[in-house]
Design a protein that fits this description.
By secondary structure, this protein is an alpha/beta fold. It is built from 11 helices and 11 strands. It has a 7-stranded parallel beta sheet, with helices on both faces. Strand 2, helix 4 and strand 3 form a beta-alpha-beta unit. Helix 3 runs parallel beside helix 4 and helix 7 packs parallel to helix 11. 36% of the residues are buried.
């Protein structure tokens, strides 16, 4: 009998086992397949789903307690008058809802400032601008300015670190000419206007405050802070929008007065003016087209809020309408206007002179 064609030794095996073996069964796998896997889990319960990751992140944040970074001694003075805080510190409250409960308001535009350049950094350290860290590029040419900057930083307890030039580029911006040196200045801690007034009244003092309307030059702010300190004022108020904040430049120009005179942040300057009027303050605007001349001003001995406008535009329309009076400083016809810092100094001097009588 001839053999059937095919591969030698090949054997046909039935499914389920060896040739001729009976098929035992599926062991329950068929039944499980028919039952299915049950209802589909929610998106937030699936481990790798974005909704699950978002839920885990929310739970982590809820379980964490807020921590305040501690600055090294001498790195960033923090006083009750509202000064600079160490990087990483957070304050309660916000610009629109801080009440008179000791809370602070932070200007949104003010983050940690980084000064760069050998002259700028050295001048800031000489002026004792609060700082938290001095960064020196590796293999920098150590001239007298760099040596003095390191010496001043060490004397004040400011940390000094050596970093690469790309790191300083990243901190200062690639277009900045940093010359291999940078100084980190923490954000300013503003007070709330109502809180500032509460403190003045609790001390039994007659309020003399200065508010700024449209002042955008930090040097003007620094000069005004210095004048407020010189002529017996108790604080400065800046609006949250379209206004300069307390920067390192403002601190330097104040010649140290920024450490004694608090600066408050108003979410809405007109609302602050109306509130101060209800609490017994006379609000007087300073503008070139005022209806009253400064030499004839008779309210210098009263509780005052003096509002200073910008050099170019002056006071805004709404601020003028909300002021009790508009003062002008008589000047020569050849001079169009006074610098805002100088105008504030002249007005504050007249008020201080009236209060000495």
């Amino acid at each position: 009998m001839a053999k059937k064609p095919g591969r030698p030794g090949a054997a046909r095996v039935k499914k389920g086992g060896s040739k001729g073996a009976p098929k035992v069964g599926t062991g329950g796998k068929g039944r499980q397949a028919l039952e299915g896997r049950g209802p589909t889990p929610k998106a937030e319960d699936r481990k790798y789903h974005p909704a699950a990751k978002a839920k885990a992140l929310r739970e982590r944040k809820a379980s964490q307690t807020p921590r305040v970074a501690k600055a090294k001694p001498g790195t960033a003075p923090t006083t009750k008058k509202g000064e600079f805080l160490a990087p990483g510190t957070r304050t309660a409250g916000n610009a629109g809802g801080a009440a008179r409960t000791g809370r602070r308001v932070q200007k949104a535009a003010d983050a940690s400032e980084v000064l760069s350049g050998r002259n700028s950094v050295l001048e800031a350290l000489r002026a004792k601008v609060p700082a938290t860290a001095l960064f020196i590029a590796a293999r920098i040419e150590m001239d007298d300015r760099v040596k003095e900057a390191i010496s001043l930083a060490n004397a004040r307890g400011i940390s000094v670190g050596e970093v690469t030039r790309p790191e300083i580029d990243r901190m200062t911006g690639h277009d900045a000419v940093h010359q291999g040196i940078a100084l980190q200045v923490p954000p300013y801690n503003y007070q709330h206007p109502s809180e500032l007034l509460d403190k003045i009244l609790s001390r039994g003092q007659k309020p003399l405050l200065v508010a700024l309307d449209g002042i955008t030059d930090p040097r003007n702010l620094g000069a005004i802070i210095r004048s407020v300190a010189a002529f017996g004022g108790q604080g400065v108020i800046v609006p949250q929008r379209r206004s300069v904040g307390v920067t390192a430049s403002a601190w330097k120009t104040s010649a140290g007065a920024a450490s004694r005179i608090p600066v408050a942040l108003a979410a809405n300057l007109n609302a602050t003016i109306k509130e101060f009027q209800k609490r017994g303050l006379f609000v007087v605007g300073l503008d070139g087209g005022g209806d009253m001349s400064l030499p004839t001003f008779k309210l210098g001995n009263e509780p005052l809020l003096l509002v200073i406008g910008s050099e170019g535009k002056g006071l805004s329309r709404l601020v003028q309408e909300n002021c009790d009076a508009i003062l002008s400083i008589p000047i020569a016809k050849e001079t169009e206007s006074l610098n805002a810092g100088i105008a504030a100094s002249v007005a504050l001097y007249e008020v201080a002179k009236a209060r000495l009588k």
